[in-house]
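Q: Hi! First time doing this. I have a protein sequence and I read that you can turn it into a structure. Is that right? Here it is:
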Amino acid sequence: MRRQSPESVGKILDNLKRTTKLGKQLEQAQIWERWPEIAGERCCTHGQPQRIKDGTLHIAADSAVWMHRFAYIKWDIIKRVNRMAGQELISDIFLELASDESPQPPQDSA
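A: Yes, that's right. Below is the predicted 3D structure, encoded as structure tokens:
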């Protein structure tokens, strides 16, 4: 019987990230962390990712005008997300109008 050499913790974690549901959720969490980079500086303040369901990223925009703008750049957002992840995390975007009850990102009080 031949012994295998030990694998590094980083290699094990990378494998788990690629092959488990938790790994996919960690990849999806990067969308929220890197939203300004993904959506662009102007758009990121007018629409927020809400959830991912069945490969569709749901974005709540703060007005119909911004919903239209997000629809215009939809394919760019999909490409950026999937390029960031190195795999297809999302295949579509669903836009919705943000309600007054939508959670807002914390504001710095200056």
